[in-house]
Hints:
alpha+beta; four-stranded mixed β-sheet
Amino acid sequence: MNINVxxxxxxxxxxxxxxxxxxxxxDGYTETQTKxxxxxxxxxxxxxxxxxxxxxxxxxxMRHEITHAFMFESGLDCNSEWGRDETLIDWIAIxxxxxxxxxxxxxxxxxxxxxx
Length: 116
């Protein structure tokens, strides 16, 4: 699937370690040069996993990597240390669904561009 990140097309891929060797060390990563976001297609399972955790974790991983792409495309990745900070990126990935839910309820998600 392709997604638009601040006017730049990124390909969102669910991949396997055999095709994307970086997935041996990461659950997902963003390639800003090739404009690809790669998310691991299969996760290791153990007895501690709960039902449905894959979907939740994959979604969070996608949000995390998409946030990296937004930081890069806005120039914050290159021009600040905090734009690459994994703690901040993860916080955004975890909290954005909750923030969007509250903002939708408050009816303030419509942008100024959409109002014109």
